[in-house]
Amino acid sequence: MAPDLQQRIYIETRLGNEGPSAALAYFFWLFLGIVSAHRFYLGKTGTAILQIISYFFVIGVIWFLIDALLLPEMIRARQDEIRRRIAATLPA
Predict the structure, then answer these.
(1) CA separation for the pair 90, 85 (Å, rounded)
(2) What is the 3-state secondary structure (H, E, C) of 1-39?
(3) What is the pTM of this model?
(4) pLDDT tens digit sequence for 16-74
(5) Is 42 helix (H, G, I), strand (E, B) or coil?
(6) Whole-number Å distance between alpha carbons of 51 and 83
(7) How many whole angstroms separate alpha carbon 46 and alpha carbon 55?
């Protein structure tokens, strides 16, 4: 069952409060990217650890630069995950 308007407003309000911030994700990428803080922030722990390990090789630097392009999609995916979690708690 699709949520009604009031439930969608509730979900989006909670998402605004609990969801990831694009500005903060890019801040982490720019200033703490060497420790993959942006990936940890977006809940991608496994790839964050792989990225840290890959910095010992040249591929890590390339991956770091590609992440600038991937951040918007990672943020949207995290927001969708939070939306689903919040929607699951709503009464039917």
Answers:
(1) 9
(2) CCCCHHHHHHHHHHHHHHCCCHHHHHHHHHHHHHHCHHH
(3) 0.85
(4) 999 999 999 999 999 999 999 999 999 999 999 999 999 888 888 899 999 999 999 99
(5) coil
(6) 27
(7) 15
